[in-house]
Amino acid sequence: MRVVQIPTLFDNYTYLLICEKTGQTAIVDSPDAEATLAVIRREGVDPVAIFSTHHHMDHVGGNEELIAFKKMPVYGGLNDRQRIPCLTHPVEEGDQISLGSLIFRVMDIPGHTRGHIAYVGEGAVFCGDTLFAGGCGRLFEGSAEQMVFSLGKLKNLPNPTAVYCGHEYTQKNLEFALTLEPDNQSLQTKYAEVVDLRKKSKPTVPTTIGEEKSYNPFLRTESPELITNLKKKIPGLKDDRLSVFVAVRKMKDGF
Ligand SMILES: [Zn+2]
User: Fold this and answer.
1) Which residues, 6 or more positions from 152, have their beta carbon under 8 angstroms from its beta carbon?
2) Coil/strand/helix, residue 195
3) How far apart are CA 242 and CA 147, in angstroms?
4) Catalytically active residues, by annotation
5) What is the pLDDT of residue 206?
6) Nearest CA-CA partner of 31 in 48, 47, 49, 55
7) Mean pLDDT for the chain?
8) Which distant-in-sequence residues (6+ apart) come within 8 Å of 245 by Cβ?
9) What span, in angstroms and rounded, lies between the C-alpha atoms of 247 and 36?
10) Which terminus of the chain has a lower count of CB atoms within 10 Å, N or C?
11) If you measure from the C-alpha of residue 112 to the centroid of ligand 1, how many angstroms do you get, rounded to a whole number?
12) Per DSSP, what are the bridge partners of residue 2?
């Protein structure tokens, strides 16, 4: 698999997943069909499917125009089926999708929206607005319990799995993370790298599951340093994973 990353709108990412044997290509989350088609032409690849992660327009706004350009199946979560434009293939946990010689598995990861899904395969996960580099998505429709469960599933993927998320939010996310774990060495190192990349206008995505586990506060709800610092701000906070997650999410919403 070759992945082409397309920065779009203000801070979104569209991805082209290309089967190098056949040139068959899936488009993950395109809000801007023109920008996506320009890259498809430049790469000389054959778009054969759209993989939508969730129904928000900054992820699916380009579906209609892409379908007008070329008719192709549109995949998306079963629970988002009424809200993803041009959806033809509602999918859910465990479903498999082939793309040339590549195979992707669907993972249900509700929380940000109730029908949010990830596409997992070829050593990578395309997780939309659920897990971000250094952060996680806001809870627009789902519950904190759902989000904790979804993040737990992502966290269980092998450490080298490349994490392709829907937005370039990393620097701000890590600035927030540093308020909770200022002494976390891998967080400090990552932050310095990210500041450097952003100065050069380079993407900080993808990261890996292993990296995220080392600095992402939403995957570190058991970290003693994080819990200690959180309790200084919220005396009496319970330290079970859900309570810690809820507290961290609430603080990030106001950061
Ligand atoms: Zn979203």
Assistant:
1) none
2) helix
3) 10
4) 54, 56, 58-59, 112, 129, 167
5) 98
6) 55
7) 97
8) 144, 147, 148, 218, 221
9) 38
10) C
11) 7
12) 18
Neighbours of 113 (CB within 10 A): 25
Backbone angles phi, psi at 176, to 5 degrees: -65, -45
Which pLDDT score, from 0 to 100, does residue 157 have? Answer: 98
Kindly state the DSSP code that residue 167 receives in the 8-state scheme.
Answer: B
At 45 the pLDDT is 96
Hey, what amino acid is at 209?
Answer: I
Yes or no: say if 215 and 181 are a contact pair by the CB < 8 Å rule. yes
pLDDT the model gives residue 3: 98
Average pLDDT over residues 125-141: 97
Q: What is the pLDDT of residue 231?
A: 95
Confidence label for 77 from pLDDT (cuts 50, 70 and 90) = very high
For residue 91, the CA-to-ligand 1 centroid distance in Å is 18
Cα 129 from Cα 118, distance rounded (Å): 10
Q: Tell me how far apart the alpha carbons of residues 13 and 217 are, in angstroms, rounded to a whole number.
A: 22
Which residue, among 145, 140, 152, has the nearest Cα to 253 in the 3D structure? 140
Q: What's the pTM?
A: 0.97
| DSSP per residue, 72-139 | --EEEEGGGTTTSTT--EEE-TT-EEEETTEEEEEEE--SSSTT-EEEEETTEEEEETTEETTEE---
pLDDT of 119: 98
Cα 54 to ligand 1 centroid, rounded to whole Å: 7
